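Reopening this ticket.

The earlier resolution said the output was attached, but the attachment link was broken on my side. Pasting everything inline this time so it's all in one place.
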Amino acid sequence: MKPLNSKLQNEWIALNEAEETLKNLGFSYGGGWEYDHGYFDYKLDDEVGYTFLRLPFHVVDGELEQKNTVVQFDQPFLLAHKYQVGLDDNAGAGNLSGSFNQFSEPQDPDASIDHKWVKIAKGVLVEAENKLLT
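Inline output:
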């Protein structure tokens, strides 16, 4: 994980406005949503794993399912994860179902981030700031 400085941090924005603007820039809802916070993710790379620019936010007025919800953005960051090559060392059959766990443990769940992705992410972040803060 690599934190990034941003003009978005601590800004309050209507969630529906942020969603529409960010989806038009290629962001999608990230995993890990809760009742009071969530993420917008921009996929930068997915060849040997994935690298995302993540814009975290938390609710300051309303609830995530409501139309007029207001969110505050937290510090954006880059998130990288490398897939394990080959079979998972911990894979095994389930005791009751006889099914196999087909998902590999990550090789590096907090992988280092290539400088080229940092540079690209900063450009995407500036574009998002310009669209959301004007």
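Reporter confirms the inline version is readable. The beta strands are 2-3, 12-14, 28-29, 37-45, 49-61, 70-73, 77-82. The first helix runs from residue 15 to 24.
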